[in-house]
């Protein structure tokens, strides 16, 4: 079984209850499925869940190089040098990132308002960046963009392989045929 879930902001990627916090159990009542990878509590968007350990490893392991596409709303507008740094890979305190596909985009047409909204500063514009990674370490995109001088204000995972968050409102999920070529590059 494979489930595509649009994880809302503030939801923890686990099923076990946590006092005063929303978890996956608040949205998905199917038992014996587990997240294939994680999204930070303050990130939103596509999360895949499965009951297959093999499929979970295929989705989440960087050795399979499954592309994961993110939309990052950033403070300011990244310079050409910042974009080049993201494309070449960035040395962070504990590792060097692999090169990422990075391009400025218009605000995504199909994105939903965040609850709560991001902070708004009248004198500091924001911009949107689409990043494609084939790895995923803890808070990697936020750390990458901050290191270029353009912090991420909002982070949405839009796609994993061929599975997209499109058509799913925050908190909604759909089952996907796990035998389909969904994960092809």
Account of the protein in words:
This protein has 185 residues and is an alpha+beta fold. It has one domain: Alpha-L RNA-binding motif (Alpha-Beta Plaits, 2-Layer Sandwich), CATH 3.30.70.1560. The chain has 3 helices and 11 strands. It has helices spanning 53-60, 80-88, 140-147; strands at residues 2-7, 11-12, 22-23, 34-35, 44-50, 68-75, 101-105, 126-133, 152-160, 163-164, 173-176. Strands 1, 4, 5, 6, 7, 8, 9, 10 and 11 form a 9-stranded mixed beta sheet that branches. The protein has a two-stranded parallel ribbon with strand order 2-3. The two termini are 20 Å apart.
Provide a brief overview of the structure:
With 185 residues, the chain is α+β, with helices and mostly antiparallel strands. Helices cover 14% and strands 30% of the residues. The protein has one domain: Alpha-L RNA-binding motif (Alpha-Beta Plaits).
Task: Record the SSE blueprint.
Blueprint: E1 2-7, E2 11-12, E3 22-23, E4 34-35, E5 44-50, H1 53-60, E6 68-75, H2 80-88, E7 101-105, E8 126-133, H3 140-147, E9 152-160, E10 163-164, E11 173-176
Parallel strand pairs: 2-3, 5-9
Antiparallel strand pairs: 1-5, 1-11, 4-5, 6-8, 6-9, 7-8, 9-10
Task: Report how far the terminal alpha carbons are from each other.
Answer: 20 Å
Main pleated-sheet profile: 9 strands, mixed
As for the number of domains, it is 1
Can you identify the CATH class?
Alpha Beta
The protein's oligomeric status is: single chain
Question: What key phrases describe this protein's structure?
Answer:
11 strands; alpha+beta; Alpha-Beta Plaits; 9-stranded mixed sheet; 185 residues; globular; two-stranded parallel ribbon
